[in-house]
Design brief:
The protein is mainly alpha-helical. It has helices at residues 3-14, 18-27, 41-48, 50-69, 75-79, 81-100, 113-123, 125-142, 145-163, 169-185, 187-195, 205-218. It is 74% helix and 0% strand. The chain is globular, with a radius of gyration of 18 Å.
C-alpha cells in the first residue's frame, strides 16, 4: 500500500453520498431536487428535518475523520508526526473533494463543511470540539445551519493561529484556506441571509412552540 492508494481511497470514502442515499432509501426522493439542490447536511436539515439532518451530518463528518486516519496505515507516517499531519491534510481534502464531487452520485454533492469538520476532528480533536461548540451555539441562537457553518469555519483559523498557536505552517495555511473556501461556497447563503430569505432548520421545535405560546399570552 502506498500514498496514491490511500489518496484514492480517501476520495472514495468522501464520495459516499449520505444525503442522497438517505433521501432515496427512506423518502423515495432525491434531496438534490429540493431546497438548495445540495446533498449536504444543511439541505437535509431543511428538507428532511433535524433527525435525518443530524444523521447525515455525523456520517459526513465521519468520512473526513476516517480519511485522515488512513495515514496510520503507512509506518513512515506513524513515526513522523509533522509529515503525518501534512499527509492527513491531503487525505482529508481528497475526502472533501469526494463529498463535493461524489463519483457515486453523478459528481453532484454538498459543500463539504461537515467533512471538513471530520478532517479537523481527526487531526486536532480539541480544535474541532471548539469549532463544533461555535456551530451549535450559533445554531441554537439562530437556527441557520449555513450561518453556523460559516462562523464555525471562520473560528477555525482563529483557534489554530491564535488560541492553540499550532506550529505547522501547512496547517496554518490550511486553516485560513478553509475559512475562505467556506465563504466562497456559501455566497448564495450569505446573500439570502442578508436579504432575510434564508430558511431556518426545523430544530428546537419545543423551544419555538414555547416562545410562541408566551408571545400569545403576552398579546
Amino acid at each position: 500500500m502506498n500514498e496514491l492508494t490511500l489518496i484514492i481511497l480517501a476520495y472514495l470514502i468522501g464520495s459516499v453520498p449520505t444525503a442522497v442515499w438517505v433521501s432515496k432509501w427512506f423518502f423515495n426522493i432525491d434531496i438534490r431536487d429540493y431546497g438548495s439542490g445540495n446533498s449536504g447536511a444543511t439541505n437535509t436539515f431543511r428538507i428532511l428535518g433535524s433527525k435525518w439532518g443530524s444523521i447525515v451530518m455525523l456520517v459526513d463528518m465521519l468520512k473526513g475523520f476516517l480519511a485522515v486516519k488512513l495515514a496510520f496505515l503507512l509506518p513512515f507516517y506513524v513515526a513522523d508526526e509533522f509529515a503525518r499531519t501534512n499527509f492527513q491534510i491531503g487525505l482529508g481534502l481528497c475526502a472533501v473533494l469526494g463529498h463535493i464531487y461524489p463519483v457515486w452520485a453523478q459528481f453532484r454533492g454538498g459543500k463539504g463543511v461537515a467533512t471538513l469538520f471530520g478532517l479537523v476532528l481527526g487531526i486536532s480533536p480539541w480544535t474541532a470540539i471548539c469549532c463544533v461548540g461555535v456551530f451549535l451555539l450559533v445554531l441554537f441562537l439562530t437556527r441557520f445551519v449555513s450561518l453556523s457553518s460559516i462562523l464555525a469555519s471562520l473560528a477555525f483559523p482563529i483557534f489554530i493561529l491564535v488560541i492553540f498557536n499550532v506550529d505547522n505552517h501547512a496547517y496554518r495555511i490550511f486553516a485560513v484556506a478553509v475559512a475562505l473556501l467556506v465563504i466562497l461556497t456559501h455566497q448564495k447563503n450569505i446573500s439570502r441571509l442578508l436579504r432575510g430569505s434564508e430558511s431556518k432548520a426545523s430544530i428546537f421545535k419545543y423551544r419555538d412552540r414555547r416562545k410562541s405560546r408566551r408571545s400569545g399570552d403576552l398579546g
